[in-house]
Amino acid sequence: MAKAVFSVLWPTHANYDQFRALSDDELPRTLDGYISIWGPTEDYVDRGGGEFVRIPFDPQLMAAWCRSEHAKIDEAARAAYARYLLDTKIRPRR
Question: CA–CA separation, 73 vs 23, rounded Å?
Answer without folding.
Answer: 5
